[in-house]
Amino acid sequence: MPSLGADMDEGTLIEWLVHPGDHVERGDIVAVVETAKSTIEIECFDTGTVGRLLVEPATTVPVGTPLAVIEDGAKAPAAASHQAAARRGAASAQMSAPAASPAPAPSVPVPAGRKPAEVSPILRHLAHELHVDLAAVLGTGPGGRITHADIEHASRTRRTRPRASPLARRVAGELHIDLGRVHGTGKNGVIRAEDVRAAAAPSAPAPSAVPAEDAPPRQPPAPRAAQPDRAAAMRRSIADLMSRSKREIPHYYLAAEIDLDSALNWMRERNRRLEVADRLVPAALMLKAAARALTEVPELNGYWLNDRYVPGAGVHLGVAISLRTGGLIAPALHDADRLPLSELMSALRDLTSRARAGRLRATETADPTMTVTNLGDQGVERVYGVIYPPQVALLGLGKVTERPVAVDGLLGVHPGVTATLAADHRASDGAVGARFLTALDRLLQKPEEL
Amino acid sequence: MTRDEALDLVRDAIRRIVPDADFSAVGLDEPYRDALELDSLDFLTLVETLHKRTGVRIDEDDYPKLTTLAACADFLASHTG
Question: Which one has a higher pLDDT value, A439 or A172?
């Protein structure tokens, strides 16, 4: 279960899109996972053949839990998504998998063909102490080797996961029953599906906080199955992340008025020649300019992790998208600085419609390096934003309005926008933020070069 | 296309973008974008849908003529003949 955002600690597997024996390429969409915020398509991080599927649909598991085994011919099995974060560069690895050991890449290559069964006596002893079955542990170390953290993780997972049959887990997922509260009547106290149904029956004393009307209809889990309490879960998830931001991040704020006369004139001329589908909106110009400005001021494009600033690998612009059902989500426009405007525009439309339809991809939710929130369409003039941790800055864009400006010693009327920057004072100082806003302004004066 | 047909078409196109749009709360002469929370990308999708369904070319300079449901219907009705 990959981490699909700084605020995620568990996810529910909704459906598998592959079967054991299928050949998969790195980047293929293999499963659909539901988080508090969205339904997300999970990409495979390995190329190989699907071996075993380790998690049943409708099961909720903590971040870091292996979902499936990808067999890679002669090489040792590696866990799909297991090391998702680790393979995506150091910054996001530390961001998305705080529980796993953030081991730096080994300087000495590990000999190929090392079997996962090679475990040091110390680790064997640890596994024995913690009652962890080494055969069931998937190694995340070099060459699939089992690490200290893997054993501890397996031990924690074992302790926190009540013993239950796969069907019981599925039923519990559908009925929103916490397995920890179900009394198992099976062999060795294993929870059976009947136990879950009994716990869900209205006659049973229900200490569960889940109101009955939240139980979705009993049918194969559809992406919309958990809709009724999605809004509440999203609210909680936003609450947690924003509280953390305001608790930990010393924000500083800067604002600049940006003249959009040349940008919008250029855009209007360009749009005149184009079909509707190819036309730009002002937001696309401003996003592109923001992405380019970040390449000039890399101090704002990254994460604050373990008391230091870690620059992002590429400019992945988070775009705050408000959902019609309430709440918001800020998925990433990958490499926004390098996308030509027309491609950025179609990527933006695609991202927005998928975010609202609840179909984002894992890579889009995991790793924005800075977020832009545009409240101009809501009539707001200035945005004093709250940074998404562990990011270190957030750009707020207000409404594009006609405003009086001095042009060549005369008073004129130009369209303009107020850009505000909220930045983390641990990672940067006001001078850095000022450089960013200045670059943004300068880039927007030459739209044809964007 | 009559004005009524155009009005139905506009409502239908908006409903594709905002599935639970409540048109009883939006007067024909009121700005619907604010009332139904259509952002600039949604509006672009609306223009695209109207163009596809009617064949009427809608330029950016025409956008100010599309601010209310009545205005949209008038615009489409007068351009389809």
Answer: A439
Q: All domains of chain A, ordered by start, with CATH?
A: 250-449 (3.30.559.10)
Of B34, B41, B61, the CB nearest to A349: B41
Contact flag A324-B20 (C-beta cutoff 8 Å): yes
pTM > 0.95: yes or no:
no
**Which of the four pLDDT bands, split at 50, 70 and 90, describes residue A216?**
very low
Longest dimension (CA), chain A: 88
Between the CA of residue A146 and those of A55, A68, A154, B35, B42, what are the distances in Å?
20, 17, 11, 57, 50
Q: State the smallest CA–CA distance between residue B40 and chain A in angstroms.
A: 7
Sign, CA torsion A30/A236/B18/A284: negative
**Looking at the complex, does the CB of residue B62 fall below 8 Å from at least one CB of chain A?**
no
Paired residues of A164 in beta bridges:
A191
**Which of A101-105, A156-160, A217-221 bottoms out in mean pLDDT, i.e. has the lowest?**
A101-105
Across the interface, of A271, A272, A283, the residue whose CB is closest to B40 is A283
| Residue from A424, A304, A289, A284 nearest A347 by CA | A284
- Whether a cis peptide bond, with omega within 30° of 0, leads into A216 is no
Kindly state the helix (H) or strand (E) to which residue A405 belongs, with its residue range: strand A401-407
Q: How far is B39 from chain A (nearest CA, A)?
A: 5
Of A302 and A131, the structure prediction assigns the larger pLDDT to A302
Per the prediction, chain A carries an average pLDDT of 79
B51 and chain A in contact, CB less than 8 A: yes
* Res A217 pLDDT > 50: no
Record: contact A272-B58, CB cut-off 8 A? no
Number of A to B CB contacts under 8 A, please give it: 33
Per-residue pLDDT tens digits for A418-436: 999 999 999 999 999 999 9
Antiparallel, parallel or unpaired: β A401-407 and A68-72: unpaired
